[in-house]
Every structure is written in C-alpha cells, then in structure tokens.
## 1
Amino acid sequence: MINWIKSLFQIETEATVNPKRTFKALKNLHYIDQPDLNKIYESLLNLNKDTAQPECENLVKGINEIRYASNTNGYFYFFFPLVSHVLYFKPHYESKLLHHLVGPNFANGEKNVQGMIDVIKGAMKYKLDLDSNYLTIEGQSWVKEDLHKMKEQIMREIDFCQNELNE
C-alpha cells in the first residue's frame, strides 16, 4: 500500500538511486592517455564485498590513473562518487583513494580533520539536493556511517598535503 502511494506522488527514496547515472561522468571523459574508463565504469557497477582483490586493485589503479582536469571543486565532485562507493565495500583502500577527497578540500583551505568531515558531509547533502543519483546508496552510507571513523587517515592526508606545501 505504501509503495502504491509513493508511486502516485513519485516520492523518490534512496532505493531509487541508479548507479549507472551516478557513474555517468566516466562515460563523458574523452581525453588522451586515460585508462579504460568503460572497464572502470563496469567494475564500479559490479563492485561488492566479495569482489576479488585483483579486480579491486585494478579498479583502484584505474581510478588513480584518471586525469581529470578541473578546479579543486570540480575535481572533488568528480571523484567523490567513485571514492565513496569503493570505500563502502573496500575500506582498506583508503590509503590509495582518500587523497581524492582530502587534497582538493585542503587546497580550498580546510586543514582541520572535523572540518574536513563536515565539508564532505555538506558536499553530499548539497549534491544530493541537486541530483538524487549523485552518490550511490553505498556511497551515502559510507559518508554517514564510516567517514567519521577515519579521522586518523584524514589527518594523515592533511599532514601529507601540508608537507607537500612546505617543500
């Protein structure tokens, strides 16, 4: 009965998030020297807790090889759906992916761990208000439930950024 009522009013819920729409930005990149974006796209769609390590390694390597030319905000917003989705299923890859979220926000002036978490959570709310498909359900869950548990890892990334800036 509730589903019928929701369908009448077309109430959108988390369950209506379409991962193909979430990762569509990958389909729009057509730069020279990019990794196989179709393979990354398919790997993201098929990723789950049981995905084998070699497949995950290839996915993470592919994400890190993407050369996305933009300003800091554009860079962050491009990688946010990819990183949050992967870290939901495979949190141990944070050391290879978290820099895509921390680095751009550090460059924008955020140097505090809690501030970084707040910026990321705020970005999720902002983008989901504009497009309910911006993050997968899993990516949203990672931000809500797991991001705050990564304070040490976020501090490590902030320290790395600061050290790079000081050199």
Note: Residues 41 and 87 are 16 Å apart (CA to CA).
## 2
Amino acid sequence: MLSSAACRYKCICAILFLSLFAFCFKAYAQFGEVCGIMEPRDSTNWGIGAIKWEKATNIKGYSDKAQTIMIIGVPGSVEIQRADVVYVGHYGNTFLKVFETRGSSYKVLINSIDGGLWIDANELKSKGLAFYTYASILFNDKTPSSLGVNLFKSCLNLRAEPSRKGKLIKCISKNVNENAFHKISIQHHKEDWAFIVVQECIADPNNADFGEGCGYKVQNEIRGWTKVIDDKGYPNLWFSFSKY
C-alpha cells in the first residue's frame, strides 16, 4: 500500500488536500459550446488515457517528489489545473488525464503537482473507479455522439477505407466559428479507425434542427473512415462540451 511505503522509507506522511470544486466552477464559466459545436480547446499533453473522476469521491495518491500521501477530492490549498483533466460532453463528466504507468499505478496531475501524483489501481478499484484509454471512451455507445476534430495544426483525413492507403475523400478541419461548422458521429469502428458521418452545417436563423435557439441547417453530409486514435493514443476526435 502507498501508506506502508511512505512509512517504510520514513517519508513525510502529511495529507495535502486538493480542491477540484473551485476548478470546476472556474471551468464552468470559461467553457460551453453552443448547440453541440465541438471546438478544440486543449492543446496540452493528453497522456495515454484518463481516469473517470467522481467529484464526491476522495482518492489517495503518492508524490515521489514530496514523499507524501495526498488526497484528491477535498477542498484545500492546491488548484487542479485545466491541463490535467478532460471532459466528455459536460463539465460534470470529468476525467483525470493519465500520463504514465508504473506497475499497477497511474501518474496524474503533472501540471498541478510538482512531479505529479501516483494512484494505485487497487485504490481506484476500492472507489469504483477505473482507467480508460481514449479509444475505449470514444468507442462507447453510452458516450455523447456530438464530436468534432480535435486537431490544431492539421486537418483530419476522411478516407474510403480504414487505411492510410485508402482513397482520400476530404480533409476535415477543426471548427473555428458558429457560422459554418461540422458535427461528427461514429457509426462503427475497426481497431483505431472509425466509420463516421460528417454533417456540414451553416447558420440559418429560420431553422431549428438542433433545438431552440440553434439556427443551423445541414448543408451537406459525407461518410468515410478516419483514424480516430493516433499512434501515440491521442484522440483525433473529441466531444462537444456543454455546461448546461
């Protein structure tokens, strides 16, 4: 156990409480995409996957740098940085990014704590939590379906087959404004590739296809295969974010 290791090496067994609540309220004010339009916002390191985070659940971890046990989830003195979390559809559906594994432990919060924090798999299991790859999050029928391109410096290739050798249909750019945008849904997948539907939309005040206050219409629809997860595990598609 982490506490035994801390005592065995005569580490400081102080408990530092990390506040996620102030962070969430800050994120609530800063983020929120209109009518399910996904705009990429996080250009920082996404790591290798994420841990589903329930704000009411406290998690113990261990800091190699401070040789200290820390507890995430109780109001305290250290603010969790935006670069250490990802959202799936809603600010309340929060995941902690995982940047590295060591044995059965996962390294999180590298931007919030000097040296990051290691959380053991048994600790997660005892709290009903688990680690997920970005592929397992995206290829889950229960997750929200409104997706967009999660790239900043390039567009995403749409191909006729699930292969880099497949005929190029179109390169889909990220959404940058609310006048013209795309909405993407995954139909099925093969390994890291997915067959997707891309709806190209334009502003239309007289149309309410996306609900009240969302004056847009679908101008064109294209289908094809795209590599959803890159070779390093980064998600080339991600979910639109809502604060409502």
Note: The chain has a mean pLDDT of 83.
## 3
Amino acid sequence: MKTILFTLWKRFWLLGMRIFLTFCAATCAAVCAATCAACAISETKSEYSLVVPALPAEWLELLGDPHWEVEWIDDTGMLREIELASSSRLGNQKIFLYPVTSTPVCARPFWPEKKIMPGVFYPAGAIFPFDAASGAIRLSWQGGVDANFFKLLAKHNNKKRPPQNFDWKRFRELFETGKIEKEALANPWLADWELIAAKTVESSFMASRIKAQEPVYVRITIPASGPWINVSPFAPSYDWKQGETVSARISGKVQQYFCAEGVFRCAKNASVFRRWDENTHSANSP
C-alpha cells in the first residue's frame, strides 16, 4: 500500500514540476521577446550627430565657409538629403541611421554665392558603423573616398558582392599602412574608382588597382595670380602667377582650378575663366 501511495505521489510531483517549469519557460520567453522587441525598436532609432572635418586652409581662405549637402540612408532604409548653410550647422545636425548594416554618409561642400554647386568639390564622408563612436559620426576626407567607393560598389552590385559585405577594415588598412601606389596614396581621387568598383564586383578586390590614372597635361596661360586650388582636399595648392604659362593636369574631361578672383575650367582643347564679381568670361585655347 505504501509503495502504491509513494508511486502516485511521485507521479503527481513530477507532473506538477513539469507544469511549473513549462510556465517558467513561457514566462521567460515572453520577457525575452518583449526585451528583444524593445531593443530592436531602440536600435532602429539610432540618432547621431556629425563631426565635421577640418576644411583645407586654402579652401577656407579663398572660398570661405561652405554650405554642405549631406546624404545618408535613414532608419527606415530610405535615402535622405539635407542642405546646411554652414559648417557649424553641419556640426549641430543630427541624423537617424539604420544600424542593422553598414552604410555610407556623404557630405559635399559647396558655395552657392560663387555658383559652386554640390558635386564640384570632392566630399567628406564616413562608413557607419566604423566611424561611429559615442553617438557621433566622424566625417573625414578619406571617409569621402570610402563612401564614394561604397556607393559605386552598390551601383555595380550583382547581389553576390554587396558593399555591406566588403572588408572595409582591410581596405582602410591599405591607406593607413601605405600599401598602395604612392601617387594614389597622396591623392586617392586620382584613381579610377568607377573601374575599381566594377572590377571588384565582377571578380574580386585587388589593391593593385588603386593607382593614379595616366596623367593628361595641357598648356594653359594663367588669367590671375594664385594661390590656386582644385577640387580634391588632398591636392596641393599652386602659386601660379598671372600671365604665366604652365602645364596643368586634367582629370576627366574638365579640370577646375579656383583662386581668389574666380574659377578656371580647363579642358584638352580650351579653357574658360569666370570671375566671381562678374558674369563675363575670358577664354583661351592652349
């Protein structure tokens, strides 16, 4: 009789424990699910301020404080753009980013009062989350190269090599350790990034492709005294004098040089100078 009672008691005890453990497991699962949901909501609402890179001294001296056009992918996955009237406003701007994957941020300087619009000068930029810390995105001029390459990889993407899966850490180490061609290291915008992106998506990434394009020089007569700057923050300024004839490097179809008096647009067969204070142009053929 005692054996039967003990057996029945044991079975009821085990059944009770199973019910209790099932209830505990269900409760824990519900709590974890609620916690994860709350985390997911907070993660998709990641707000960041922007840390502005120092403007090259010659740009600031000749053109003044720029306006900025900022482009990024927001927390809903949509492309966003805003224009800000000064560097100080850029530094005070906050943006929402989608933190599930890496994404580029571009900031293009422009000077509308001089009719220099976004896209003429090369951008600053960043790759999120690599350039994020303490609630801020740190923009840099090298980051502008990275962000541009990210966008070109996305443009040529065949779905097998999305830019989010690219080894950005290794890519940046190439510049930090100087393991690329010296001229492209000094001024990365001399490389053909469109071609590099297309080849990377087509086959694989090769550091040897990061090299300056074959230079094209034209003879031009300088219309005003310098210093002169071009559109790359990595390029040196030029102390060309009015009336001097020099060999100027052309990148692409047209190369633009800027001085305190105006902009000089140079091509293989002609060049045009526009002064800031007038609508008239002076032109010459090399």
Note: DSSP finds seven helices and 14 strands in the chain.
## 4
Amino acid sequence: MKKIKLLKIIVSIFIVAVFSVLVLGGLYGLNSANYYDKLTMDEALQNREMLENFGCLDKTTPTAYGFENYEDIKFTSPLNKKITLSGWYIRTGKTENFANRKLLLITEGRWVNRLKAIKYLEVIKNTGLDEQYDIYIGDMRNAGDSSVGNTGMGYNIAEDIAASLIHLNQTYKNNSFAIWGFSQSGMAAAVLADRKDLQAELNKRHITIEKTILDSPMSNVFKMIEREAETNHIPKIFVYITYCFMHFDYDFYVDKMCLGKILNTPPYPFLILQSRQDQLTLYSFFEEESKTFSPQVRVKLFDIGAHVSSYLVSKNKQAYEEEIKIFLEK
C-alpha cells in the first residue's frame, strides 16, 4: 500500500510539473509576442550603423526632407490613459486653417521607431502628395518615446492608431485620414478596419479613414508564430498553448488576424506592397492569404527587396512612388 501511495504522489508531482512547464512555456511565448525591447529615439540617433540601415543617415528630421513646419508631439492616448504616444506632426498646408485637410498617418513595425519610416517623406515630396496631405509619423506603444506596452502582435497597436487619429482630429482638426503601416503596424492597420469597437470610436467623432497602405504586413499571425517556433526548435505544443493564451489576451480576436479574413470585405480600399524576397513576412504566407482578397485590395509585388525595404532598392523606387501616388490620388 505504501508503494502505491508513493507512486501516486510521484505521478501527481510529475503531472503538476509537466502542466507547470507547459503553462510557463505558453506564457513565455505570449510575453515574447507581445513585448520586445523598445528602441528609443536617442538610442537610434546614436547608432550610425542603424541609421544607415534605416536609410536615413544624416537625414533624421522632417526638415532634411523639405518639411520645416512640424512639431514633435507627445500625448496621452484618449483610448487608454496608461499609454503615452509620440510622433512628428507635419503641416504641409499653405495657411493656418487646417480644418478639413486630409492627413496621412505613417507608422512602423517591431523593434524600430519612426526613424525607420522617415525616408518615406521622400516619396510624399517626390509625388507632390504634400499638396493634399498633412503628415503624421507616429510611434505607437513600445517604440520611440512612446510608452512600453503590450502590442498584441498588432491587435493593441490598432487601438493606438485609432487613438492617434482621435488626438490629431481634436488638436489639429484633421478629420479625413489615410494610413500607411509597415510590418506589425500593417497588420494593425488592417485590424483597425475590422474592429467594430474602434470604428465606433472614430464614427462618433466623425473621423473617416479613406484608404490604407500596407508595406510588408504580417499576413498571418499564427503561421508567423509557428514558423518562429520551428526556426528555434521549440516543440509545437508550446505554439498551441501560446495561441490559446492569445485568445484570452486579444479578446478572442486572434483567429481573425490573417489578412485573407480581414481583407475579404474591407470597408475602404487597401494597397499592399510586398517583396517576393521578404524573409520575415514570407511571400508564401502572403500569397495564400491574397486568394480571398476583395477587389478593393490592390497588390503590388516587387521581385527584389528585403522586409520593409523595397523602396530602398533603386530599381523599385519609381514603381513604388507611382503606386503610392495613383492610390492616394484616386
């Protein structure tokens, strides 16, 4: 009897230990997906190699691209008082009356900040779009001078984008917007189009999103997590446990975090710019998702170019600028 009792204790301890390992592994996976080291503005500005990789070496302010009338702003999110957001608000209008002018919001992805996106001011200047749009290059949570926060692989970034639009509307009176999101923020911009709670916040303030551009967007969150686990030789069971926790953490929305579902019936037009050589947001994932895109979604593929770097390839520049100009001017 004593041996049986001892065996039961050992088995119980083993089951508890295995369960604890699985739960802790899943929580670790969730934390890794939601949080990552924030790159501050000072850290980026002091790293010339990083700035060169960003494509903005010695051109780190809007002034360097011909936009002298700008403000470096910081504000509390009107949708989450625990989050502070920051960015450059660039006024391109010819008078002080900015009411009813369109605004283009640009935001980057994981592990970087707005300095990664500043080079796209060149696109706006070269295409003459600054005659039609004011510009906001924003750091959402966990980037630049904004708060550290749970990004939700883009789910919570969508809230920050909506909060930025609300703040810009309240402060500068812009009420018609276009969004340009990269990588994780590309997924976030798509999620924003689909989340009824955030659309309700915008609608009650008479804020309109007219169009959205996605460059190298995350196309399927689950597949990205699965691939990352395979690359790091992590047992598949931890992927499923992490994904289970994501359901609770992302308000049971995570199953919809694939572009094929979100962009099947989008509320406004989308332009997606994607490189076939992208090794982070794989083209094979994107190609599968694109099969169910609405006719409102235009796709431009580039044969060469790394993740969020198609524009840095000289061969791509003209076509890239033309796509942006045609889409935003329509």
Note: DSSP finds twelve helices and eight strands in the chain.
